[in-house]
Amino acid sequence: MEKLSILGVRVDLLGLEEIQSVTSEVIQKRIPSLFISLGSLTVIRARKDPEYKDLIENSRLVICDGAGVAKAAKILSGTNITRLSGIDLVPVFARLAVEKGYRIFLMGAKEDVIAEAARKIRNSFPGVNICGYLNGYFDIINDEKVKETIKKHSPDILLLGLGQPKQEKWLSSRLKELNVPVVMGVGGSFDVLAGNKKRVPGFFRKLGLEWLVRMILEPWRAKRNLALVLFVLLVIKEKIIGGKEKNG
User: Fold this and answer.
1) What is d(CA 185, CA 140) in angstroms, rounded to the nearest whole number?
2) Phi, psi (degrees; rounded to nearest 5) at 103
């Protein structure tokens, strides 16, 4: 699998078929594996947090999530990279689960939200095995009951919505103990699936302007918006300095 470095942070060159193939492979072999969604904000966080950056570097897959990373890859290395966000991958996992009989466990958000997300996934994908779910309001330090519940249900895929970087750090530190083949953080996907939060219209997503719409609709998230601006400036700086970032 070919990899790129976006401002020093790894992202993989892969498409939907390869994600499905790796998912099936690690489930069949029972290899606990962390999948990462890499967006512009993830890159900024990783540059400031060496532990998080190392976690990303050592993950099984690092999937491009967001127009910013995709455009940075094109600008810095001339490479086209497929965008697949966490919310886009949930139905991918669900279809694969129906086809191959995989078990999915959901965790995160409020109790009513995660319950509604599970219900809607079951309705949208008849036969999918959502083997269990838990809300995200638990003590991430003293989490023995949570871990025991997950292990009891023995899922093949665990999707966690706690927000970055908390979700990835929690999954990474408990990867071997949980012994779940595929674990992945999906951020606020459960709120979208439950209907509590709307996605930016597809027209803007196709144009790569989802970030701009969010900035307009959520001006109170000033710190996040500034980080997006910083990402753009760093990409421009990297391009001016020169040197392709493809590292094979």
Assistant:
1) 15
2) -105, 130
CA 49 to chain centre: 18
User: Among 1.10.30.50, 3.90.1580.10, 3.30.70.1060, 3.40.50.2300, what is the CATH number of 102-199?
Assistant: 3.40.50.2300
* Radius of gyration of the CA atoms of the chain, in A: 18
User: CA-to-CA distance for 160 and 12, rounded, in angstroms?
Assistant: 21
pLDDT digits (tens, 9 = 90+) for 53-90: 999 999 999 999 988 899 999 999 999 999 998 889 99
Segment 15-53, tens digit of pLDDT: 999 999 999 999 999 999 999 999 999 999 999 999 999
Cβ-based burial of 242 (10 A; exposed 0-12, middle 13-18, buried ≥19): exposed
Predicted TM-score (pTM) of the model is 0.89
User: How many whole angstroms separate alpha carbon 2 and alpha carbon 248?
Assistant: 5
